[in-house]
Amino acid sequence: MDISKLTIQKAHDDMANGKYTSVELTQSYLDEIAKKNGNVNAYLEIFDDALESAKVADEKIKDGKASLLTGIPCGIKDNILIQDRIASAGSKILENYHAAYDATVITKLKDEGVVFLGRTNMDEFAMGCSTETSAYGVTRNPHDLERVPGGSSGGSAAAVAMNGALFALGSDTGGSVRQPSSLCGVVGLKPTYGAVSRYGLIAMGSSLDQIGPIGKNISDCEIVFNAIRGKDSKDGTTIGDDAYAKKRVGKEKPAIGVPRHFLNGDGIDKNILESFEKALESFKVKGYEIKEIKLPNISRAIMVYYIIMPAEVSSNMARFDGVKYGLHKDGKDVIDDYFETRRAGFGREVTRRILLGTYVLSSGYYDAYYNRANVVRKMIIDDYAAVFDPSVGGVDIVATPTTASLAFKIGEKINDPVAMYLEDIFTVTANLTGLPAISIPCGFSDKEGTNLPLGLQLTARHGDEATLFEVGKDFLGEK
Amino acid sequence: MVDDGNCGKIVNMITAKELEHLAKLSRIKLTENDRESLVKEFDSILGYIDKLKKVNVLLDTSLRVGALRNVVKPDIVSGTNSEDRERLLREVPDREGDFIAVKKMIAQEGIDFKI
């Protein structure tokens, strides 16, 4: 069985036709993980009941009750709760925390009969772009073990790229599904804010977070997205299918907008710009209209993000006090317990962002930073609305590279926070605006003798994942 | 480090004292070493986000909220069961029966809660 060529549809059809069972398929993935995980460290834990779940899935398949995802093996990011399993969010403070309940996305995938292979590594509390801040070791890029897989969903992206899962779930707050997908050569989707329930996702930035699928191709991501989406009474920020009016009508190809004014910087790798232009050429050949667009406030997006996100982080991290769950360290009195617990449990990056968030929210600075950032956030939302406005000849897709650089060496940026933060330069806008965005592999580039993957990012209107899937499939030649 | 044009004196964007205040607010204990390196890191981070101050905007509340609205649901307890309760309680670091044990918080001799 060559699992490297599988898609969800093919695996489903093969199992329906009795070509192999889910147990055999799951065992193949477990074998691959056994071969590679020692080096890659994509998985923090392999679940001991994976084959049991596969057996149950096989029964469902035999009874003719299987759906597309029944018996399909996947990896789950360490910040998504699976009842009774450890969810540590890559942190020491939750090292032995066992989830009390299933995340809504997990409930939905369990209903489908998916096989959970294990929990994947991540930057601590999803804070990072390289999976280097995990308290449980780095994850290495399967394309070059000396390089990072990206982050914070580096484990999930690496698991799929190394054929250690047919798909995986990650979470995306500023690019954490799309950036590692780009660096690992796989597809990663950040849905419209509210499309997928955050119930059971350990929160980082509540107005920014979304759970998203990572897969080998567009169709697989689409299948998983359709399985995990939906309005959820347990998450008041979720939306139904009808929340956003369908703005694209007619059969013409979507128009693609490129914010060229933002692609002139010296900070963007020449190979990435070259491959991006090639991608645009291939769209032109396929009959797409490419328009130059202006997003006047896009250069401020990173600043806005690194004010709003730490502010929300500082609030969300306050719950980790060693009282109800997680690590507890004794101090000299009840308040000192908190100081000791949080010092012992949080890593450098998490501490940095909590302090930064506390700073921008503190009296005297609130207006200068947080209020201002919120106003500029709204300006960025309006910029995109203008660009997508059909009544003024707007576009349907905004295209940029996913990242400004190729996968960097492990340790290269960890001591330079600002350099690390600039990794998010193309991805944060989708989180600030709530727009759906997808990263699609668009080739390889040679760097110091290794072929490293590059990603193309497409952003669409709120609720218009369908256009992302349509254009993505066309680009990759998927049926 | 930022030269604020103050007779060539170089100042940090944040002082160790300010950082200690933030650490107190966040309930995180920092060592001297932590403070030193964080002051440096904050210099580069704040130096970057500080550029936002130059953006000419009206700090209008209504602009901030925009199209957002609150989503509410009825305040009804939908029921609890002993299994769920056990799943929550088994995670408690200091558990006494069905209770979470915490240290005394009432003012008493010898304990200074001044933060």
CATH class of the domain at 3-228 in chain A: Alpha Beta
Strand proportion of chain B, as a percent range, falls in 5-15%
- The stretches of 5 or more residues of chain B where confidence is low (pLDDT under 50) are 1-6
The CATH architecture of the domain at 3-228 in chain A comes to: Alpha-Beta Complex
Please give the CATH class of the domain at 1-54 in chain B.
Mainly Alpha
Which sequence of SSEs, written as H and E, runs from N to C of chain A? HHEHEHEHEHEEHEHEHHHHEHHEEH
Look at the helices and sheets of chain A and give the structural class.
Answer: alpha/beta
* CATH architectural grouping of the domain at 1-54 in chain B: Orthogonal Bundle
Order of secondary-structure elements of chain B: EEHHHHEE
Largest sheet: number of strands, sense, barrel closure of chain A: 11 strands, mixed
Outline of chain B: flat
Q: What is the number of helical segments of chain A per DSSP (H or I, 4+ residues)? A: 15
Strand content of chain A: 5-15%
Radius of gyration of chain A: 21 Å
Structural commentary:
The complex is a heterodimer of chains A (479) and B (115). Chain A has 479 residues and is an alpha/beta fold. Helices cover 37% and strands 13% of the residues of chain A. An eleven-stranded mixed sheet of chain A has the order 1-3-2-4-6-5-10-11-9-7-8, with helices on both faces. In chain A, strand 10 and strand 11 form a beta hairpin. In chain A, helix 2 (22-40) packs antiparallel against helix 3 (50-62). The two termini of chain A are 23 Å apart. The mean pLDDT of chain A is 95. Chain B is α+β, with helices and mostly antiparallel strands. Chain B has a domain at 1-54: Histone, subunit A (Orthogonal Bundle), CATH 1.10.20. Chain B has four helices and four strands; from the N terminus they run ββααααββ. Chain B is flat and about 55 Å long. Chain B starts with a strand and ends in a 15-residue tail after the last strand. At the A-B interface, helix 9, helix 10, helix 11, helix 12 and helix 13 of A face helix 1, helix 2 and helix 4 of B.
